[in-house]
Design goal:
Shape: globular
Strand content: 15-25%
Organism: Lipotes vexillifer
EC number: 2.7.7.79
InterPro entries: Thg1_C_dom (IPR025845), tRNAHis_GuaTrfase_cat (IPR024956), tRNAHis_GuaTrfase_Thg1 (IPR007537), tRNAHis_GuaTrfase_Thg1_sf (IPR038469)
Subunit structure: Homotetramer. Interacts with MFN1 and MFN2; functions as a guanyl-nucleotide exchange factor/GEF for MFN2 and also probably MFN1.
Structural class: alpha+beta
Protein name: tRNA(His) guanylyltransferase
Distance between the termini: 37 Å
Bound molecules: adenosine-5'-triphosphate, magnesium ion
Low-confidence stretches: none
Strand order of the largest sheet: 4-1-3-2-5-6
Mean pLDDT: 95
Length: about 270
Amino acid sequence: GAAMAKSKFEYVRDFEADDTCLSHCWVVVRLDGRNFHRFAEKHNFTKPNDSRALHLMTKCAQTVMEELEDIVIAYGQSDEYSFVFKRKSNWFKRRASKFMTHVVSQFASSYVFYWRDYFEDQPLLYPPGFDGRVVVYPSNQTLKDYLSWRQADCHINNLYNTVFWALVQQSGLTPIQAQERLQGTLTADKNEILFSEFNINYNNEPLMYRKGTVLIWQKVDEVMTKEVRLPAEMEGRKMVVTRTRTKAVPLHCDVIGDAFWKEHPEILH
Ligand code: ATP
Ligand code: ATP
Ligand code: MG
Ligand code: MG
Ligand code: MG
Ligand code: MG
């Protein structure tokens, strides 16, 4: 505190580097699971997409948005999530290390805390870790391009993985054979293999797998039953109460085109 006497050791604080994020810019924290290729194997993730794992990731991201300040949108796919802090945020004086460490530690502890709710009969075998990075984007266009980049990555990986695992699980190819079969193929070729060999129309695959998950703040009517205390003759009865809360709501929509941003102008305002 201000009234506290300073010791002669206080000068060592000057060795701390200034990591203030440039003002008026969007601050993005992206985290990613450490060695989740192995983590997925050890915990018997369904291939190519384990929906329990994706829902757990989203629960952790919602917890981050609700516990921390100033996050306006988040986007997740696979073992990664990106969090966007509002341009004008002055949380922790915009120190990059504070943004990043609070996001990553809150996310990691939530992943362990909520594990059992999503993986009922799959025990957590060891403590997972996540890396984090901070990137600052100077304009709405660069921020939109950042999110488009992550969603394009989701699409490319998911299309590849969908064909790869169909070849392995349904055609009995070894992983090496499946990889060789897909070497040099274009998007159209992969769609064609899926359709002609497996009768899969890629566009009918679940949106969560193809688009990832966008979290934005929306007003939600929450219906809950409440124990009635008074008057005495009604004691012990339950009453249905509706109240409106603002929550981080998951969407599996396209963010590359303009439609999403036109529909939600408040995000970038
Ligand atoms: P690094 O530590 O460098 O990030 P990594 O093994 O985590 O290494 P990533 O590129 O992050 O590599 O890839 C994450 C991997 O985790 C995927 O390739 C996939 O094998 C696995 N994975 C993550 N989420 C899921 C999921 N929901 N369903 C199935 N597999 C998943
Ligand atoms: P911030 O988020 O800014 O760090 P804080 O409440 O964590 O806020 P700190 O300056 O880090 O503030 O102080 C940690 C506080 O946690 C202590 O003041 C004390 O109240 C409590 N605390 C931490 N460890 C112990 C402990 N072992 N026994 C009792 N109290 C503890
Ligand atoms: Mg990586
Ligand atoms: Mg990873
Ligand atoms: Mg990853
Ligand atoms: Mg503290």
